[in-house]
Amino acid sequence: MDPMDGGMRYNPGSSDKDWDQAVTFLPASDNKKLEKKSGSGKVGVIVGLVILAAVLALIIGLLVWHFHFRKDLKLQKIYTGSLRITNEAFVDAYENPDSPEFKSLAKQVMIQLNSMYSESPLLSKYYVGSRVQAFSEGSVIAYYESDFAVPVGQEAAVDQGVSKLSDMYGSNKVRKLVEKPGALVFDHVVSSANLRFSQHTRGSEDEIIRSPGFPDKPYEPNSFVQWQLRGDPGYLLKLAFDTFNLEQNCSNDFVRVYDSLVANDKFLMAEKCGYYSPTDSPTFISSRNVMLVTLVTNEEGNYPGFRARITQIRPDSTELTCGGRLTGSSGSFQSPNFPNYYSPNTTCQWEIEVPVGKFVKLKFPKFLVSSGSSSSCPGDYVEIVGKSKLCGQQPANTMVTVNSNKMTVVFYSNSSHVDRGFSATFDAFEPTDPCPEMFQCDNKRCVKPTMRCDGWNDCGDSSDEKNCQCDSTMIQCRNGFCKPLFWQCDGVNDCGDNTDEMNCGCKAGEFKCSDVQCVSEKLKCDGNRDCKDGSDEEGCSREMSCTVSTYACSNKKCITKQNPQCDGQDDCGDNSDESSCNCGKKAFKSSRVVGGQDAIVGEFPWQVSLHVKNMAHVCGASIISERWLVTAAHCVQDDKIKFSQPGTWEAYLGLHTQKDKQTATKRLLKQIIPHPYYNAYTYDNDIALMELDSPVTFSDTIRPICLPSATDVFITGDVVTITGWGATREGGGGATVLQKAQVRIINDTVCNQLMTGQITSRMICAGVLTGGVDACQGDSGGPLAYFLNDRMYLAGVVSWGDGCARRNKPGIYTNVPKFRGWIKEKTGV
Ligand code: 4AZ
């Protein structure tokens, strides 16, 4: 049977086979001979000797089995745990494992642990020892690892034994185990099981590893399993996953692959989570004959897991060969193991030579080279010697040319963090014609001539859209761009300098929507949203004559003062601008997001964490009333998970750290209302409302944020605050503690240029253009808040961006004032 076949179950190493051999080692006596020679004294001596030899062999066999093979049938199980010492106070020296204080307390804890395990006959049989790893405050919490050598088949019993002991020492059961004066008193023993397998792949035999339970059941919660993999000397190990299906969020469950036998970050090749289709499942190759694979899972959301095949390969195998001399007018090459992960510690050098008199052009259809966080490529890189160094993810078909018929390309990978590598093609070109029959962009790319002046930025640097003579189907922008005529007066600044949105007056009898669209005057205030942005229905219930740029009071007065609400002055005369002001204030006087810092408890009491039920944080949201939340429409779009269904979600209110969700206020949802014009391609109108299944009572940690009025404006440079539990770096894990950061409002025209024309009037840009501070994955749906008249208002909803915290790439937020009428209509708030 193919060992990858789903029917085969885990077989710990080759020790079963060894056991069979040990049994056959016991010799059988020769019955025929015994029958023939019976009765003779000589025969009696021989028979006696044979029996003696057989008994001796039996004893030796049993001893060999007991001392050699039997121990191979044991697994090393490591339980990590913590316990609280209630009769000790924390001192700073406990932070230093080399201090005498640390060592003395650790020794006492180990005595307690030995004593605790000796209470169970089963555990004491397999217990090997414990190590204290750290102490923390409260009174003193000790963190430790306990090792057990567990015979195969006994794992579940030992797991049960350990969890029973933890229960015995549960939260309210204070114990003192060693009855000596001054002995530690402790409670709150918490343990979780770790499992370690060791496997040695020999010769051409493959080995299979799989997450515990695979394929019959999901992997266990709260587990830590590691596989130490070894090959024969001189070989490398190839780890090929054929199934990989873990929880999406790597901060919950993940697999790590190390180019080492120990979990040292210097040799971490990759951390993986989520789902990979079988055709795209990752394959890793070590740089030596060892590898370590670890699986870490948290308490929630357990998925099928993984299965992988380990094979030995020679360092000179074809999939790893790279570099060399390439000649001719064109050719191609790629990183070792492409399109799968290259190995750490690899260097390859290609010498390209095209016919004399021609120059070399190198193109990378795919480029993914692990770079670390800096653009100077401190990690892995591809160097075009004398010209440039590339790393990270490069756009498809990135091009480099040299003014010579020779080019040297070096690929280097360091000891950690590998990626899928690159494919490259080279071509010779005439020095006078670098893009034969193509348009050459300023960045040296060549694009089809039909792409020139078509309104789209095909070069990536907009050079194909510059200095265009526009034909009759195009708008001539003042800045030289041409844009399709049907983009004129659509409320979006497509030109970048707003030329396409100028002179967009409406005909007599038409109403001009605030996004410049014209609709029949008769449609104004008819109860239907005829303008895309709903501005034909705004201010209707109050005063017909108020414009979209004046504030409508309840007494039908229109106020031209900007942002008059809740400023402590009765601007309307009926105080209506000062009503509904129980919002936007925190309870206490005091003062992830990338580049942020931990928020203070209760500092942003409107911040909500949206979890997919029984799973993890997915998006943020803001409280606007006892019943309603505002979030992003893209958070509630169906995917593999039915995000659009209220039943999918649970909302945590008053939450500060994700670890405390048990103590936060949880609400299920009654309904979700995504904006009807949300566009999943452009993220236009990215806003949704969520109604809670029951109202919340406001408290110090749960309060609403103020909603801006439709006429509120944000001024370029204004400081705004973003908050969330999203990733603290691009591609990184989510934050545990709520993060806050300050960014500034960015001018729409500048932003539209930076974001290659993708900004609509329903979006606001905010960020720090030098990079480093931004919202990121997981912050979506959360608030962009601004401070006005001593309160915080919801200016925007975290929506999208080009990566996170990149230079010249602001974060994009849904422009909440544009949706003020819609929010009122749907929620009454
Ligand atoms: C996201 O994926 C996301 N840098 C949110 C905000 C930004 C980028 C990505 C802005 O949820």
Automatic annotation (TrEMBL):
Hydrolase is among the record's keywords: yes
Alphabetical keyword list: Disulfide bond, Glycoprotein, Hydrolase, Membrane, Protease, Serine protease, Signal-anchor, Transmembrane, Transmembrane helix
Domain CUB, chain residue ranges per copy: 191-313, 322-429
InterPro entries on file: CUB_dom (IPR000859), LDL_receptor-like_sf (IPR036055), LDLR_class-A_CS (IPR023415), LDrepeatLR_classA_rpt (IPR002172), Peptidase_S1_PA (IPR009003), Peptidase_S1_PA_chymotrypsin (IPR043504), SEA_dom (IPR000082), SEA_dom_sf (IPR036364)
PROSITE patterns in the cross-refs: CUB (PS01180), LDLRA_1 (PS01209), LDLRA_2 (PS50068), SEA (PS50024), TRYPSIN_DOM (PS50240), TRYPSIN_HIS (PS00134), TRYPSIN_SER (PS00135)
GO molecular function, one term: serine-type endopeptidase activity
UniProt-annotated location(s): Membrane
Transmembrane spans: 43-67
Disulfide bond positions: C441-C459, C453-C468, C470-C482, C477-C495, C489-C504, C506-C518, C513-C531, C525-C540, C546-C558, C566-C581
Domain Peptidase S1, residue spans: 593-828
GO BP, sorted A to Z: fertilization; proteolysis
Name of the protein described by the UniProt record: Suppressor of tumorigenicity 14 protein
Protein source organism: Anabarilius grahami
Lineage, highest ranks first: Eukaryota, Metazoa, Chordata, Craniata, Vertebrata
